[in-house]
Amino acid sequence: MFQRAASTAIHQAMQPGPADALPAWVTTVLAIAVILGAFGTAVGMLVRGDFSRLERFRLTLAMLCFALSSLSGLLFANQSATELIGKWGAVTLTLVGPAALWLVALIVITRLWKDVGQAPEGGPVTPAERGLVAYGEWKFKHAGLNYLFTNYVNEEYRVREILSFAYFRAVQKRKPIDVKVATVFVYFQIPEQPEAVRFIKLQRITGVAKTPPTDVYHIFTPTLPGGTANSYAFVRAEGKILGSARGGPGSRRWLRVDSLAIDVLVVSSYPDGNPPEGDYVWIDVPKYSDTSVDVGLAFLARRPIADEGDRSSKMWAVHAARSAAGAPGTDVPVMFKSCAKGHVAKEHDGTVLRPFAQWLADLDALLVSGSQPPDMASLEGESATANDPVGFLRGMLGELRTCTERKEVGFAAALGPEAFPHVCTFDEMDVEQPVIATFQWN
Question: Which end of the chain has fewer CB atoms < 10 Å from its terminal CB, N or C?
């Protein structure tokens, strides 16, 4: 009798009274916070979780079921008619209330659906199904240009180039944001050397500095080993050219720009070392910005460009691979994915040159004045040896006038549709990986 009375007293003392209960609005706020936290965690793990596909989806499913269970318990707190009882030998498990249904659903799904986590992504799981091509296969996909990637001397040169672009992203540099890179390659021959293919590159880089100064990438590399190239970068702000810098090795591949708005024009000349069958070019996107880049690319020529089969123009995105295991016959840990096909036309309206219109007028004005712009490379302690951007531009314009037989014209007319009627264009938005584009002559 005494023990029963004591037990009853203790039990009654442990029961919370009305004074111990939290206000309804407090419990509601806490419940909502828990539910929102679970939903947010689920979405965050699904989108950016640092897990494998299977782990990420299972954790997301668990958090989602927990959130729905909490929501059911909050909405139907006074309805406990749902009761599930399960027995396992001498053990009995009882789940009561609507919230229990979601927890049971989680257990049933994970027990019966063994491949949970594989299906929701729905996409391919192998590199080939994702459109990725191993280097050992990719280097044979260029018809008449295959020798650029398979010849021993060329391939050694090419592999170093590919690995540099795929893996070295210059994360220590202060790169701009909202970057657009418009590039035009112009191919021609001069009467004195009709068998030699020459080309020039115009590349306009625009963007916004996070905090000035900003490092802008300035690259120019011959296609074939032993080829030569020369390049200058010009900087414009508030409608005038502020200065120029000659490209070179090492730190001179980067130009320091001390303004909020970035507007740089790279002008490069490639007088030799260019294949006669066509060409390939790089746009090393990660060097220009740590975010995605809007890329525009065009080839201009005086002769037709191929547009059929393996000889058609293509753009490939280059991805670093964790290993070379998926690339039989090669030790190069990179994968390629076809991302665009070139649009070839026998004549054009000059649209590809519109991003460069004001720049070309500024270069013409610079040649008329004959005054050298300030050497921006020398401000960083670089050598200004043979720094003659006006002479460089004058020589380039002279070659264009000779090959097109258009005397006394400026850059805009020398590069116009009448002089270079054949065009191949690519337009890729929000590019994050380095890209390589190829074209061949018809």
Answer: N
Task: Identify whether 213 is preceded by a cis peptide bond (ω within 30 of 0).
Answer: yes
Please give the tally of structural domains in the chain.
2
**Same-domain pairing of 256 and 309:** yes
One domain, residues 268 and 377: yes
CA 296 – CA 427 distance, rounded (Å):
5
Q: Would the pTM of this model clear 0.85, i.e. be above it?
A: no
Least confident of 12-16, 36-40, 89-93, 101-105: 12-16
| CB-based contacts of 82, cutoff 8 Å, min separation 6 | 96, 97, 98, 100, 101
Q: Tell me: the pLDDT tens digits for 329-367? A: 556 889 999 988 999 998 878 889 999 999 999 999 999
For residues 212 and 318, state if they share a domain. yes
Cβ pair 266, 203 in contact under 8 A: yes
* Sign, Cα dihedral of 98, 104, 108, 109: positive
Q: Any idea which residue has 């130009």 for tokens?
A: 255
Q: Beta strands 435-440 and 254-257: pairing type?
A: unpaired
Q: Note whether 217 and 169 are within 8 A (CB).
A: no
Average pLDDT, the chain: 79
Residue 410, pLDDT > 80, answer yes
- 428/430 Cα distance (integer angstroms): 7
Domain that holds residue 257: 132-440
Within this chain, do residues 47 and 84 fall inside the same structural domain, yes or no? yes
d(CA 400, CA 409): 10
Distance of alpha carbon 287 from alpha carbon 295, whole angstroms: 13
The dihedrals phi and psi of 265, each to the nearest 5 degrees, come to -115, 125
Bridge-based pairing of strands 422-431 and 293-301 is antiparallel
Phi, psi of 329 (to 5 degrees): 80, 10
